[in-house]
Amino acid sequence: PGDPALDDPGAEYGYRDEIAAVLLSEQDLRAKVRELAVAVAADHDVDTPPLLVCVLKGAVMFLTDFVRAMPIPTELEFMAVTSYGSATTSSGVVRILKDLDRDITGRRIIIVEDIIDSGLTLSWLLKNLASRNPAAIDVVALLRKPEAVKVDVDVRYVGFDLPNEFVVGYGLDYAERYRDLPYVGLLGEHMYR
Ligand code: 5GP
Ligand code: MG
Ligand code: MG
């Protein structure tokens, strides 16, 4: 008589037999997001609110939890980019799908990212935003994979280092599915092979 949620963690969200395991539970995520929010806020000034740039769509769950845990005011912007590649890898050739709505000259920017894998997308984004003359740019990423250490991107705040496996949930998708899961899980291999 096992707990069905443990036997099949996707089942209660309508993804029957699709999620192999929970890697980071809702509790794990909540605690880490609070920790990151406090750490980032400590490096910023209440009087000059940082401008958070959320990279759509994967970072949206992280962003909304993160800003609500921040003990200082923040302002929000959204950017959507796409990186050509297969469904599970990126190429570094990036295209802007939705740009920022305002000028960021002189602002302190915090890029809010879901996951850094090869680091190619982020290094492109850092260059792109730096060319707009902000006062500073920092990066907060919820997740990072081992490959990311190979590229020279300065990520000041990282939530969790992950093994080199494809994860979904808490904003992260596979073919636009699974973003709605409240945890980060491992997609069953039979789902993409
Ligand atoms: P990078 O350019 O660093 O290789 O990849 C960045 C983007 O690829 C992430 O923002 C994310 O959208 C996607 N990505 C990388 N690894 C994973 C993963 O394990 N799961 C999912 N769902 N997306 C990933
Ligand atoms: Mg991303
Ligand atoms: Mg994706």
In short:
Belongs to the purine/pyrimidine phosphoribosyltransferase family. By secondary structure, this protein is α/β, with parallel strands linked by helices. The protein has helices spanning 4-7, 26-42, 60-69, 120-130; strands at residues 19-24, 51-56, 75-83, 94-98, 108-116, 136-144, 157-161, 167-168, 184-187.
Q: What's the layout of helices and strands?
A:
Elements: H1 4-7, E1 19-24, H2 26-42, E2 51-56, H3 60-69, E3 75-83, E4 94-98, E5 108-116, H4 120-130, E6 136-144, E7 157-161, E8 167-168, E9 184-187
Parallel strand pairs: 2-3, 2-5, 5-6, 6-7
Antiparallel strand pairs: 1-9, 3-4, 8-9
Bound molecules: guanosine-5'-monophosphate and magnesium ion (2 copies).
Q: Roughly what percent helix?
A: 10-25%
Return the domain count. 1
Structural category = alpha/beta
Overall shape: globular
Q: Identify every distinct bound molecule in the structure, by name, code or SMILES.
A: guanosine-5'-monophosphate, magnesium ion
The neighbouring-strand order within the major sheet is: 4-3-2-5-6-7
Which spans have pLDDT < 50 for at least 5 consecutive residues? none
How many β strands by DSSP? 9
Give Rg in angstroms: 17 Å
Reading off the top of the CATH hierarchy, the class is best stated as Alpha Beta
Overall mean pLDDT score?
92
